[in-house]
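Task 17 of the worksheet. Students: predict the tertiary structure of the chain below and write it out as structure tokens. Keep your answer in the requested format; marks are given for formatting as well as content.
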Amino acid sequence: MKRPSDHLAALGLALGLALALSAAPALAAPTVQPGSAGAASEDDLGRLLAERGLIGTLGQAGLAVRNQTSELVLNAMGFLGVPYKRGGTTVETGFDCSGFVRAIFEQTAGMVLPRRAKEQAAATEVIDKRDLKPGDLVFFNTMKKAFSHVGIYVGDGKFIHAPKPGAEVRVEDMAGSYWVRRFDGARRVLTSAPAADAAPSVAR
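Model answer:
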């Protein structure tokens, strides 16, 4: 059973991310000219988000990445509380772990990831755990086989996922002993990610 404190923590994280990221669309298409008074405040906000690890670089490329990341994370947070359903891929039926990830990326970025967690690991770029940024994928060995569980990293050492039968989509801390012992690797979804029917070998 989910403790009230867990629920409040998840809502608090969601609210914090929402407030931090809500300015992204406005910055994607600024109305001020370079050198004007408004430009300094935009640079300050971009720097703040970079310092928080929400974007890796400033400039147009960084803004594009941040905009997609903000949408992805906020969209995922909107599904907190949706029941777990094995084989589920929609909010109406409920989600399993890989169905949740696939739905979020398809709805937010128009990208169709493979259906199973192991296939998603194979179709995305291997990154170091230290390089995790919001929107990256985190994988765990929860069924005595590699890459049997997947979630979406949301920042601050936490990830959102559809955990197991009888549970709901929720945010959890990767520093918890259960997840530390079962961590299987981190991945980044690139715009050039293989199509859903691709099945390259898994690199851990």
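Marker's comment: The radius of gyration is 17 Å. Residues 140 and 183 are 4 Å apart (CA to CA).
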